[in-house]
Amino acid sequence: MPTHAEKRMLPYSREQMFDLVADVERYPEFLPWCVACRIRKHESPDAFVADLIIGFKFVRERFTSQVTLQRPDRIDVNYKEGPFRYLTNHWFFETDGDDRCIIDFYIDFEFRSRTMQRLIGRLFNEAVQRMVNAFERRARTLYGPQSRPSKVLSESSSDPA
Q1: How many distinct structural domains can be found in the chain?
Q2: Radius of gyration of the chain (CA)
Q3: Which CA distances in Å does 54 have to 28, 82, 92, 123?
Q4: Would you state the torsion angle of the CA atoms of residues 120, 125, 127, 128, taken in this order, to the nearest 10 degrees?
Q5: Which residues on adjacent β-strands are paired with residue 87?
Q6: CATH number of the domain to which 45 belongs
Q7: Which of 145, 147, 109, 134 is closest to 33 using CA atoms?
Q8: Could you write out the DSSP letters of every residue in 85-110?
Q9: Cα of 37 vs its chain's centroid, Å
Q10: pLDDT digits (tens, 9 = 90+) for 27-84
């Protein structure tokens, strides 16, 4: 079903980028189509369950995921309930030795509804690009513009539906 993998070098530290991605309650402030978010339960200092509400035109869906933080290297998102058959998402954060962050982002999902899957499938690549770009813009807003540009190192998307 739809998958996207991307590696991108950003002129921010991995700790900064980790903190930005881990702060899911702020997603509605900058992430396209994210209408609301709440932390349902803190399971430990490094794990929580969160509800996200995604809205696009006439469609609004809520889904719940468990988020596991392995500071400052990795964030795993494991789907618990909602409109998907499955959803897998992870972020890896590496440093390039020059205080720049290499982000390795991956998402794979399938909706229960074939209609929803077809609708999203057509928009998937654009939607994921807008989402990843939104995180980069948020970093500029929070941490300031940098003299070094960001760079896409690798990217692949597929939707075999």
Answers
A1: 1
A2: 15
A3: 9, 11, 23, 14
A4: 120
A5: 109
A6: 3.30.530.20
A7: 134
A8: EEEEEEEEEEE-SSS-EEEEEEEEEE
A9: 13
A10: 999 998 899 999 999 999 999 999 999 887 777 889 999 999 999 999 999 999 998 8
